[in-house]
Amino acid sequence: xxxxxxxxxxxxxxxxPNRVGGIGRVTGAQQYVADVRLPDALExxxxxxxxxHARILSIDASAALAVPGVQAVxxxxxxxxxxxxxxxxxxxxxxxxxxETKYHGEPVAAVAAETKxxxxxxxxxxxxxxxEIAPVVTIDxxxxxxxxxxxxxxxxxNDPLAGTNVLRxxxxxxxxxxxxxxxxxxxxxxxxTFPMVTHFAIExxxxxxxxxxxxxxxxxxxxxxxxxxxxxxxxLGMPLSKVRVYAPDPGGGFGGKxxxxxxxxxxxxxxxxxxxxxxxxxxxxTFQAVRRTTTKVHVRHGLRTDGTIAFVDVRADYNIGAYxxxxxRVVAKGSYPAAGPYRVPAxxxxxxxxxxxxxxxxxxxxxxxxxxxxxxxxxxxxxARALGIDRLEVRLRNVARTGDTLNPVDTRCDGEWDQxxxxxxxxxxxxxxxxxxxxxxxxxxxxxxxxxxxxxSTVRLLSDGSVIVLAGTSDMGQGARTVFAxxxxxxxxxxxxxxxxxxxxxxxxxxxxxxxxxxSTVLMGNAVLSACRDVQARLRAMAAKLxxxxxxxxxxxxxxxxxxxxxxxxxxxxxxxxxxxxGEVIGNGMARKDAEPDHPLSGSAAFFEFNxxxxxxxxxxxxxxxxxxxxVTVSDVGKALNPLxxxxxxxxxxxxxxxxxxxxxxxxxxxxxxxxxxxxxYRIPTSMDLPLHMESAVVENEDGPGPYGAKGMSEGALLCVxxxxxxxxxxxxxxxxxxxxxxxxxxxxxxxxxxxxxxxxVAR
Amino acid sequence: MTQTIPIALTxxxxxxxxxxxxxxxxLEVLRDDLxxxxxxxxxxxxxxxxxxxxLDGRSVDSCLMLAVEADGADVxxxxxxxxxxxxxxxxQAFLDKGGVQCGFCIPGQVMSAHALLAHTPxxxxxxxxxxxxxxxxxxxxxxxxxxAVLSTAEAAAAAxxxxxx
Lengths: 764, 165
Known about the structure:
- The complex is a heterodimer of chains A (764) and B (165).
- Chain A is an alpha+beta fold and 764 residues long.
- Helix content of chain A is 28%, strand content 25%.
- In chain A, helix 9 (327-335) runs parallel beside helix 10.
- Residues 1-6 of chain A have low confidence and may be disordered.
- Chain B folds into two domains: 4-80, Ubiquitin-like (UB roll); 89-159, [2Fe-2S]-binding domain (DNA polymerase, domain 1).
- The longest helix of chain B has 21 residues, at 142-162.
- The mean pLDDT of chain B is 96.
């Protein structure tokens, strides 16, 4: 029973108990990868070149090897021939640069030494002779006729695009755009760009590999330990059972820690030296390891005079960098819902993954959607303006209602989305008078949830009634541990402090496909739920045997065993049922969403993440400085299993979105070097950069596929931040904005352009 | 050979001594020589605050201070806040208010907040925002962190009032 008299146990779903694992996080006891110390470990330092693209002529390690304590200088020459390559989607990334470097920061050698100091000193002494080659840095560079090819066509056999820098083209759509365009009442088009940004998890990436009998053990800041296990098994030629991946809770992931980076290299070095090898990246090296795809989008909307959308036509080019990583999937999945959460009769989408000599891009919260959302929602505002229709009204007129078709081949609208829109509009005070220099914007965001999924869980009810949940999700801050414990607590009637959630060890914890796409509450949550139900079924069988009655006459739920004539506790069954030898009751669960081979994304959405963001800004006309006066974010979450964690994820995503909206971007020079590596010259939101007021809310209709009607959430509140902020600045000033981030300089220039345009109009 | 220098300092109330390399930072010595890995390493240029510790009552970025400069100092790290197995009120407030997500920045946040409250026991919200401006949180649960700090100050003030101080 509850302490507060509500009858609701404070650990059940729908309440907000303190974070499981929270104590270690406030005491410093939590061990992240860089905190793991193995005896006799060698420290590794990467050797990189100060250029983006170069042909490697020779590597002379003699001076480095002479540094006391240096055990090995590892290069491509130390690897099997041809140098093994890997990648989650394309097998294109070499374990270490071979023959050439393709981006600023690509390692050409790695030093292993007894101390960090020795490794760093030796790394500086590795002499690499190289010939610099002019890089292709931007999308325009890469698509120019005769552009240098980023990938050797020989690693792209039977690929008609192998002679270009386009890795893949994706075409999605339905209806007849040209026919709709012929009859649309207004057609509005525009070009929009999204900046190159990085995840900037406060924990830089870190890796340790150690020989482990006839196998290997690898510690990594990875989000997908089972996927990493598969990659390592492939490059090392070891069975999965001999590759043990430890994945301590990452200190922030945001997509940047999904896929293997330097783990194969460190594993080869550990096997070569016979000793544990440890590589902790600096923040600067992390910038050179992961970033988000950057985009150029051209969008065309056709509308009828009543405000209904007739067609959406989108061309999106994504700069994905030198190796594919998971970026081509980002391109496909990010551009696929480009038409937005609206009923649109005709849609045409062409997106391209463009290779360049820049840091390989990867997943980043929102998975390619924020980039396109910025263009499409901004352009929809311009279309509403052209028609003289209110920007909120145009959205309410077109937003899909439950059961409406979005893409004819995909999941139908699975929420009461207009509720979120109305709520956000009310919270921002849409339509009410504003002070001079202020403006409002509202934008809608949609993202396809996971298109496939497979999660296993094992739940162990121990002889004293305490519980161990095994779940292969990575808890990188989203609070998966807490939610799984709450599910077990709800199903088995066990308080949270008697539940342990074990993650992050591929030799112990059953398979989970991945921690991404806001999937874990739904997929692993369902697996944990079904494992708990399996435990309940076994308790039912145990009770039936003990009491000599039919199983069907017994019900087990929430820690209570209902016999035909009375209710007893779980312990009343467990203790006599297990008997003197002790033991445990083990339940297994699985959640699976199969691929659909004929689907354009190989799978329909398990659910949609839907968010409405509304913003009020004040803009300084003299400096272009933008103040976020109020930030409202409303997400359709189905059911908030832990309302506080939901709020933290939504508000955190919203603030993270303000980063790429207002301040964050890599600065590349023409030679392909990043000029603002590190925390001094690359700024993310601090406690001084927050909206003056932030309000978040959720819509809960228990209409999701997860436990108790939950949907996935965590990315939604980031999807349309830039669109809503841009719209508010446009509303405040009349300046048209096409390029992020909206730094004072960008806004100031847009203001001057507005003045020039107005002066021209007056002159006419 | 790297030159080493003996230093003696008090860490979390315990006298500690170490032979440290002249160029090693306090952060390196805490983590690598003294095994106190609660203090985190991120930017190494004094911008992120993950390595914040309290040295002679002042919050400092331990990545910017040479270990030899800490010779003779009294250092408090995140490991020293809980006493007798009980969380400090500030640590407890971080948990209760939801000020913790991935947790990697939290040792630094807690130490900065601890130093802030030591000097400004009744901070305004603006003072908290400014006091924590040097501590980045990419999960961005800043609002909940502010609530934790402000509620800790309020609880301390209420306790003082009750005690007639």
